[in-house]
Amino acid sequence: MRTFLGLILGCLLTIAVVYIHDSMATSTVASGNAAGTSRQIVNWDVAATEWGQVKQNVHTAWLKLTANNG
Vertex 22, ends 43 and 7: CA angle to 5°? Predict the structure, then answer.
């Protein structure tokens, strides 16, 4: 159980760190040399679209599963 909890916590921590990095990389406050060389790690628009598709697929699979059992 500790291993499973550690995996979940590690994934959430990784996503949080990447999100913080990306939000600082695209900040309008940044200036100088670092502003030109720092790039986003994740394309968050694409990630949001893919996450929406995953949720839709899970919902569709759940509806099929419950229809077959009912």
Answer: 85
